Amino acid sequence: MEKYRDQKVRVIYLNLSIVFLFILFLVAFFPLGAYFFTFVAVSVIAISKIDNQIKKSSLFFLTLFFLLVSIVINEVSIQRFINGNDDFTTYYNNYLSLLNGNMSDIFYFGGGFEVGLPLISLFLTKIINGPYPYVTQIFFIFLFFLSMCVLVEKNTIFRNDNKYLLLIWALLLFKITSMLTIERQAVSSFFVLLAIFSFSNTKKGLFLIIGSLFHLSAVVVYFLVNMILRVKTFKSAFGIILLCLIFLVFSSVLLQFLYNLFPNEKLGYVVYFINNHEYIINEFVKSTKQILYVLPLLIFAIVFKIKGHNWNLLPSLFLFVSLMLILSILPGVPTRIFMPIIFFLYGFYYYDFFCSFNQKNQVLIIIAFSLLFTIYKVIIPGYYLRYPMVETYPFYYVSDFYQSQGNVQRSELPESIIINNENKL
């Protein structure tokens, strides 16, 4: 009996060795393939019945590491400094200024109060010590990844029956590409969610203060996002929607009054373009693109409700989608104030809904989604613009990580461009 058990263990370890060698091969030559395959592998490990939890955790996080590496390669393949709408250009210029010893630029953002990101950039100047924008992005990808792990651990609103699966869902719908364009609000959103997940008022206050050091909107965003996440009934959701519609009727006068009291660039932008139909249509399109990620979930949940299966987060998701569309009349507002949900929580909503499904079915759904996002990265021209998707020599992309870049005049970059990247091979 013992001999049979030892033989079985050896077979398992042999199979695992083959799997990890295959993943390493994909990372080296075909990283987008590694992205898909590691989602498959890590999902299977998440529901596997391994008695030794230490071994299971080790296998899970080792596979997760390969997933993280493949995400890094995917994201760094996107060319920066070609579009004037990318805030990363401003952040990188600030990094360069600090690299050159201009310490006063720590107080560059938010009237000198938003020192959070410049302090991180100052730290990076000591570690990276060079004009390497894509290396700084790799650091932020790791930072956002760790932030998601922390949120999964600290989560107090969504179900967490299987934290492994919750983390996989969260990473699957993680908006890292967008987060790398507006890093200040991305980091601020993390602290806003920590405040929402905390029971202690002291911790809430501390997290909001830290979040405000990255973006002054943290307190306002906290109240709005917290309101959405706490809604449990459609009666409350429709009440909030009604109040929002009433606010919009008087929004032009109210926002002008607020701008006169607290003049700032972002509020001034909304006031200036509030009656500009082109900007409103553009904002509506942006909001629609963002909610497309959760629209299938909303439809599924409504169908299940009609059939008598209630999901307690349906009013919350319905309210979020509704406000994203309604507030599109205010240019730049919905996608900014609901960033914590857009950046971090889509996967939490999906996991909470599919928690009632059989775990094997969950894995099949995750595999389907990961295949869809893999195909998406093949189709969208921005990915693998800096280096090919497949190559014949290993780790061919590493040298491109260290591409140097001097100061970029953002005002001279075009607002929109057409990328021709049909042949990614």
Fold and architecture overview:
With 425 residues, the protein is mainly alpha-helical. The chain has a domain at 1-79 and 382-401. 69% of the residues lie in helices and 0% in strands. The chain contains 21 helices and no strands. It has helices at residues 2-29, 31-47, 53-76, 88-99, 116-127, 133-154, 163-172, 176-179, 183-197, 201-214, 218-230, 234-249, 251-261, 265-273, 277-291, 295-306, 314-326, 334-337, 339-354, 359-379, 398-401. Helix 9 packs across helix 11. The protein is globular, with a radius of gyration of 23 Å. The N and C termini lie far apart (52 Å). The model has no long low-confidence stretch (mean pLDDT 91). This is EpsG family protein. The chain crosses the membrane at residues 12-37, 57-76, 106-128, 134-152, 164-182, 206-225, 237-259, 290-306, 313-331, 337-354, 363-385. Keywords: Membrane, Transmembrane, Transmembrane helix.
List keywords for this structure.
425 residues; mainly alpha; 21 helices; single chain; 69% helix
Rg computed from alpha carbons, rounded to a whole number of angstroms = 23 Å
**Please, what is the oligomeric state?**
single chain
Please identify the structural class as seen in this structure. Answer: mainly alpha
Mean pLDDT: 91
Shape: globular
For the largest beta-sheet, the strand count, sense and barrel status come to: none
**Number of alpha- plus pi-helical segments:** 21
